[in-house]
Task: structure prediction
Amino acid sequence: MFPMVCEEGKEREKGSGGRDAACGPGMLLRIGEIELLLLRKRIRNLHLRIHPPDGRASLSVPYRMPLEAVRAFAASKLDWIRRKQTEVRGRSLAIPFSYCEGEGHYLWGDAYPLRLIENGARAQVELVAGEILLHLSPGTPKEKRGSLLDAWYRSRVREAALPLIALWEPRMGVRVDGVAVQRMKTLWGSCHVRRRRIRLNSELAKKPVDCFEYVVVHEMAHLLVRLHNDRFRALLDRFLPDWQARRQRLDTFPPRPHP
Result:
């Protein structure tokens, strides 16, 4: 029995192309229309990864795992691979922000125009009367404007996460000992099971609230079941019966990079 991990990759793993029948390191494995880079390593778990920005798929497996079992596992994950590839490739099409007057930015699923208030006051961001107000000094460069908004989004995620975790801890029978928020390129969240800490992507502040709740509950569920297996999915079915719809909306919202 080989434990399995499915995730978005952070680094590209090197390997040469070849026929999958050879089953050596860096072989190309084709399942239907999907191609995966098959890597045999000195590991115990299977690791299926989707790598940004092009959505390339790689599958790392133990040396002793038979090719038939590798193919069966890959075939069972085709829907996950297609969904993740669409999500990762869609992110690469995002239009860069310029952080200029009137530009649209999301907060909890709603779009708000950005208003620049260049009055030399203390730099800060606030939501007032349907606008995101960015207070700054005249001539503040784009990078600084972006970092101010990023910090504001981190604060919004932490502010929303703490009461949500407190709500779900007794429902799920778990305890979260720490929350970290940062901007991440490939993950919406992660869970350090031993330390009972979860990490959340600051970009979640732009998503609808129900999508945010799904990520929080998903990561908390890892405190009960470590892997993304049938037991884990059963937990999500129990706590959030509509979790699959929330997950799909999370991956596809907003339909355009900017309003």
